[in-house]
Design goal:
The complex is a heterodimer of chains A (about 230) and B (about 260). By secondary structure, chain A is mainly alpha-helical. Chain A is built from 10 helices and no strands. The chains are: A mainly alpha (about 230), B alpha/beta (about 260). At the A-B interface, helix 1, helix 3 and helix 7 of A face helix 1, helix 2, strand 2 and helix 3 of B.
Chain lengths: ~230, ~260
């Protein structure tokens, strides 16, 4: 059995899902942290649902939403796009289950920034979007980074929702967790151990990258201002 | 921030770069198959591809989940199920091509024990049942699959009920989340006895478990069938039918027999 394919697929899916959650999660966090949003509790609950749902339920919901019998699925299939059973479906599943982690962390990070600092920038005449990019975002970076790390870990480990909506197709949609499960089920312990080792290595690598960024960020903040 | 952006850009490039290699435009057949067929079908995939002249992909899972995916319009060509019920449900919804269903294989359920377990024999069926009753009464645990979700567990309960043995074991069942978990319980000695599919016994580490009793088909209400059929939504019916034909070829039949299945 080819072990490289689930490893490459898992990395690809987890990276894309994480970038997507970072962009969407940060955007939503900014919206909910600083703007008045109608029905905010309901919207926030919907974003957070996949964290509370068992992943198989999330997967089932995605299957129903993206399947050919739903309006969205029918529309996509008219365009010649079928999402179910592709690795795009795996990215969508990982994105949906990791979004709550990213959203919560980013929101908390943005709210923890002392409002005096962006206000000071405002008195100096800086525009809102530049304040966000130059003042708020750099100060919130540690929290955003830990949200990114958590989301990546969650995306890398996604099993239940992926199984439902992307299937378990070796060489196509079988990610590391699915391949590991299949290997254990069939008693192929060598394969299972290799996949385990790769997962440990990936996780260590991730933790190392995050801590390097955090240390660099701390060093920069503690530098005397010029 | 700049270096973070660079990291994201690089990872994007990596992700998409490796993505493009997967986009081959060769004909493909997708077979949704029961998890218990994983090993034997994976072993046959090379021969199947040569036989039908197309790439063959498998989607392995529980038969119920596979059925649900087909009902939601998943692009499946062939369904190879471990339960006749799921096939009948798809047939009733008009999702199969009429006349393509073949009941290819059947499986049996067996009572297993550790390496020192003694097989149950009886001159007559009644004698075998009373010997079985004695054995089950003296054991402290019996491992079976959770009957709500695991077909092997459902069949186990059905067989025990048929023989009037269910009351004997009712209070000492250890429920596994799937049939291979049940096998593990007996293999590592957590449970002295367990009920699994005959095919699982062949997947066990040699010498770690022994068959104690094979339940006859009538004790579970008829043979445990593995039907295969062509899905109506298939875009490549000719190749898909060839795949079903391959599953009935000598090469496939030998592999199924070697894996412990009973050929129909």
């Amino acid at each position: 059995m080819n072990l490289l394919s689930p490893i490459l697929l898992s990395v690809r899916v987890a990276v894309l899902a994480t970038v997507l959650t970072l962009v969407v999660g940060l955007g939503l966090a900014r919206l909910f942290a600083f703007r008045a949003v109608a029905l905010r509790r309901i919207w926030e609950s919907i974003i957070l649902l996949p964290m509370v749902f068992p992943p198989t339920i999330t997967g089932y919901l995605l299957l129903v939403i993206l399947g050919k019998r739903s309006p969205l699925g029918a529309f996509l299939s008219q365009l010649g796009l079928s999402v179910v059973f592709t690795w795009t479906a795996a990215v969508i599943a990982s994105f949906v289950v990791s979004l709550p982690l990213m959203f919560q962390n980013c929101k908390a990070a943005l709210l923890s920034v002392d409002p005096l600092l962006p206000n000071a920038a405002r008195t100096l005449g800086l525009g809102e979007s530049r304040i966000f990019l130059r003042v708020t975002l750099p100060l919130a970076t540690p929290g955003i980074l830990s949200g990114t790390a958590l989301s990546f870990a969650r995306a890398l480990g996604e099993f239940g929702a992926t199984l439902m909506v992307a299937g378990n197709i070796p060489g196509r949609t079988q990610t590391i967790p699915l391949a590991l499960y299949a290997a254990v089920e069939s008693g192929r312990s060598v394969e299972a151990n290799i996949l385990l080792a790769v997962t440990v290595a990936l996780s260590f690598g991730l933790v190392a990258v995050v801590s390097i960024y955090e240390r660099r960020g701390n060093a920069r903040r503690s530098e005397p201002r010029r | 921030m700049k270096s973070l952006a660079a990291t994201i850009a690089i990872s994007f490039a990596l992700a998409f770069g490796s993505a493009s290699q997967a986009a081959g435009q060769q004909p493909e057949i997708l077979v949704s198959a029961a998890a218990s067929l994983t090993d034997v079908l994976t072993g046959l995939s090379g021969q199947a591809e040569r036989y039908i002249g197309a790439k063959v992909l498998f989607n392995f899972g529980g038969s119920g989940a596979l059925r649900k995916q087909i009902e939601e319009g998943a692009p499946v060509d062939v369904f190879f199920s471990a339960s006749a019920e799921d096939m009948v449900a798809l047939e009733a919804k008009g999702l199969l091509v009429a006349g393509t269903r073949r009941d290819l294989l059947s499986n049996g359920i067996v009572l297993i024990g550790g390496p020192t377990a003694v097989p149950v024999h009886g001159e007559t069926a009644a004698a075998a049942i009373s010997a079985l009753k004695e054995l089950l009464s003296s054991a402290d645990l019996l491992a079976i699959g959770n009957p709500d979700t695991v077909p092997a567990g459902r069949y186990a309960v059905r067989a025990l009920t048929t023989y009037g043995l269910y009351p004997v074991v009712k209070t000492k069942l250890a429920l596994g989340g799937n049939v291979r978990e049940v096998l593990q319980y007996v293999q590592n000695g957590s449970a002295p006895l367990g009920i699994v599919f005959a095919t699982d016994l062949l997947a066990a580490t040699p010498g770690s478990v022994r068959q104690v009793f094979a339940f006859p088909d009538d004790s579970v209400g008829g043979a445990i069938l593995y039907p295969v059929a062509l899905i109506r939504a298939s875009k490549n019916r000719e190749k898909a039918l060839k795949m079903i034909a391959f599953l009935q070829s000598d090469a496939a039949r030998n592999a199924f027999r070697a894996a412990g299945f009973i050929l129909k």
